[in-house]
């Protein structure tokens, strides 16, 4: 199966730089709507069989343009929602952002037991995200688009992508409506083919950032 992971368009909270993972969450800015409207053309060469969205309104709005262009009814699944920020919700100070993204980076390093204060740990996150992808995989579809969230997409790709270097998340932010493409293997693993247009291969990795969930936590380390 070919998996197209798409981050939602820009939101007001992205502009403010706050950690906003509440439900149902904000809609899109005017720029975010323009970004979403550009997706059908950007993905015109992809044959998409199904589109999944999270239970956060920004993904449904983002997916609407692509769904309409393909005459596809989006499937809503809570499992691909953003990584919950817990006690850090709606904060934007450097310490809070570093704590949040530092936990996500720890997950990419294999330490899934690290918990975001008042939020989830890596085991809880990957279990819910994997459950949605497993559902899509079992459907028999060839290509599935998941409109999801910045930190969630980066975390899943870094944990499950067998060719993604563990340090990748440090130097590769996730822009609004940025796309990650992955393909499954005969062994049930995942190879990340492109990360926002950059090809990945082997152990090596041959933009305006929208909000803290799209940033690299370089300052922490």
Write a structural description:
The protein is of the alpha/beta class and 221 residues long. It has a single domain, classed as Phosphoglycerate mutase-like (Rossmann fold, 3-Layer(aba) Sandwich). The protein is 35% helix and 14% strand. It is built from eight helices and seven strands, in the order βαααβαβααβααβββ. The chain has helices at residues 12-16, 30-37, 39-42, 57-70, 94-108, 122-138, 150-160, 168-171, and strands at residues 2-7, 50-53, 75-76, 143-148, 179-184, 190-195, 198-199. A seven-stranded mixed β-sheet has the order 3-2-4-1-5-6-7. Strand 5 (179-184) and strand 6 form a beta hairpin. The longest helix has 17 residues, at 122-138. The radius of gyration is 16 Å and the shape is globular.
Describe the secondary structure blueprint for this structure.
Elements: E1 2-7, H1 12-16, H2 30-37, H3 39-42, E2 50-53, H4 57-70, E3 75-76, H5 94-108, H6 122-138, E4 143-148, H7 150-160, H8 168-171, E5 179-184, E6 190-195, E7 198-199
Parallel strand pairs: 1-4, 2-3, 2-4
Antiparallel strand pairs: 1-5, 5-6, 6-7
